[in-house]
Amino acid sequence: MNSKLFTVLLLFIALITFPFHQYANQHGSHGAENYNSKKHWSYSGETAPERWSEIEKQSDCNGKQQSPINIIHINSDSTHVKDELQFEYAPTTLINDVENNGHSIQFDFEKGDYINYKNERYCLKQIHFHEPSEHKIDGVTYPIEIHFVHTSSTGKITVLALLGKEGQESELFEFLESFLPLEAGAKKEIHQEVDLSSLLLENRHYYSYGGSLTTPPCSESVNWIVFKEPIILSVDEVLKLKNNMPLNNYRNEQPLNNRVVHYHI
Length: 265
Fold this sequence. Notes:
InterPro entries: Alpha_CA_prokaryot-like, CA_dom, CA_dom_sf, Carbonic_anhydrase_a-class, Carbonic_anhydrase_a-class_CS. By secondary structure, the protein is of the alpha+beta class.
């Protein structure tokens, strides 16, 4: 072979292989290892709830005040505080959009509905669903749990947890599910009125305790209000929600760690 041609070939080989070696030196020679370092949390497999504290290293997922919990009624502290929880849910509140975020179906609300809890206003931001329920009462798991997420002007969070059991059809859920199905990652604009006051939450007994978000980053100092009496919705309504969400999108029960659960009557 001509020596000049041989030299050109060597230079060409060096040029096309250099970027690969440079990338390997900077990022590691195994692409799989680099991929695994960026795992996202989920509800199953290697990224299931038991591994969240490893995956989300800057989170509170390994904290001592985590949610959800199993509420044992006989161990709760019965109390009655007048007007501690007040509802300002109007029939004219607008749903802004609905999203399948890959973890749940989430309805986002425009400004309107709010609650007053311990003399502080918390505005309703969104509701989403877990199937089966995350919280248990006396060890009982319900087919569905609905979270009403509220935030204050200072960034505090109060979540209302409403458990659901199967029975007759619910007009409210028929309305909400009229915007489904929705593929993972998809969002649909709604801008329609919904009447959450029809749930009559102000007439229900509830438990309260200090806990955390039930998804990463599992932030603690969340006010939890878990209603004792479940709502009723049909089997078809439960199944329709289930078919639009990841299978078993719930976090496992967390230790109470000497926290006090209050029962409000």
